[in-house]
Specification:
370 residues, alpha+beta, Aminopeptidase, 8-stranded mixed sheet, 11 helices, 16 strands, elongated, Ribosomal_N-acetyltransferase, Acyl_CoA_acyltransferase
């Protein structure tokens, strides 16, 4: 049993054929595909591809889902695979899944195929589609956003891993009556990939930044200003770096590394948390390596972050929490235009059941200075 051919923007979704065997095998044996889809046989052979084409793909249609080859409309060459699985008829719901062949990546194939399949599913009675991505797979998360899916949360430990253990899956969903087009982002990408004033540069935190972040956030004077004041473990820092882009795409937090604009060397880190979307309010934080202190680096970083938040992000208000005795941080915020707003007594967790006061600074977009 198979389904109808579905036309998309530069792609065609059609049933698999036996002459796709070699391409399916090559695509599914690719290391990137193998890392993304733990359920694939490993190694993946042409026998596996033939079993998929002759048995598993037709069975998907027979059980209420679908499995399509994504091909080039001009050449009929296989570019990707896409389908609907885990149908829940009572909810009129199904789950989108896909892979892209290595020779077709970075061409928008996954986005075009997902849009086409979603349109077909909604036209034939589906009310809700889900797309699950590994929390550490920002490429798939970008496809979800571009195809009009919205971030809904995380299914903890929902995905088995080939080597053992389980991983979190990020949930993206689209409804039949959602507006067409890409999902608007709460936290857009940085213009040109970075913010700079010629002296310091801010760029998105990346997995390779784990070593410098561990060095920074295990400094006693840095973690003493955190709540609770406990140094993070290396695994925590590594995970934070791996998940940084995903948190950005989900509209939760933009984590950035502060660099010397001239040398590219690390100076510290900063971040913008989209703390209250309904109120267009965010929270900023920052920390510097010892060699970067006393040079105005923190103020420059906060000003760059402030201007991005009030500009492309579109926030109306920023806040920053500090310990009452952290006068250096108070001066940084005041130089960036923030004003003291009040003391929240015992607002933060301390050690051994103690509570820590939080001195709050705030800044409105209309009060921003140069």
């Amino acid at each position: 049993m198979t389904g109808p051919t579905v036309e998309g923007d530069g792609v065609r979704l059609r049933p698999y054929r036996l002459d796709d065997v070699a391409d399916v095998a090559a695509a599914c044996a690719d290391p990137v595909t193998q890392r993304s889809l733990d359920g694939l046989p490993a190694p993946y052979t042409e026998a596996d591809a033939q079993q998929w084409i002759t048995q598993a793909a037709p069975a998907a249609f027979a059980t209420g889902g679908c499995a399509y080859a994504v091909v080039d409309p001009a050449t009929d060459r296989l570019l990707a695979g896409i389908g609907l699985s885990n149908p829940v008829p009572y909810r009129s719901q199904a789950e989108v899944g896909y892979w892209v062949a290595p020779w077709a990546r970075r061409r928008g194939v996954a986005t075009a195929a997902t849009r086409a399949l979603a349109a077909h599913a909604f036209a034939t009675g589906t009310a809700r589609l889900e797309l699950l991505t590994a929390a550490e797979n920002p490429a798939s998360q970008r496809v979800a956003l571009a195809a009009g899916f919205r971030h809904e949360g995380v299914r903890r430990q929902a995905g088995p891993v080939r080597q053992g253990g389980r991983r979190d899956l990020t949930v993206w969903a689209r409804l039949a009556d959602d507006l067409p087009g890409p999902t608007p982002r709460l936290l857009p990408d940085l213009p040109g990939g970075a913010l700079t004033d010629g002296v310091v540069t801010l760029r998105r935190l990346a997995p390779d930044d784990a070593e410098v972040m561990f060095r920074l956030h295990t400094l006693p004077e840095v973690y003493a200003n955190q709540a609770p004041p406990v140094p993070p473990g290396r695994e925590t820092i590594e995970r934070r770096c791996r998940l940084s882009e995903g948190g950005w795409l989900a509209g939760q937090v933009a984590r950035l590394l502060i660099l010397d604009a001239a040398t590219g060397g690390p100076l510290g880190s900063c971040g913008l948390t989209y703390s209250t979307p309904a109120a267009a309010e965010g929270t900023v934080g920052y920390a510097l390596l010892p060699e970067a202190r006393g040079r105005g680096v923190a103020t420059r970083a906060v000003v760059l972050l402030r201007d991005w938040a009030f500009g492309p992000v579109g926030l109306s208000r920023l806040t920053a929490g500090t310990l009452p005795d952290n006068t250096a941080s108070h001066r940084v915020l005041e130089r960036a235009g923030f004003r003291r707003e009040g003391l929240l007594r015992g607002a933060l967790p301390g050690l051994a059941g103690d509570r820590i006061d939080d001195l709050v600074f705030g800044l409105l977009a209309r009060h921003r200075t140069g």
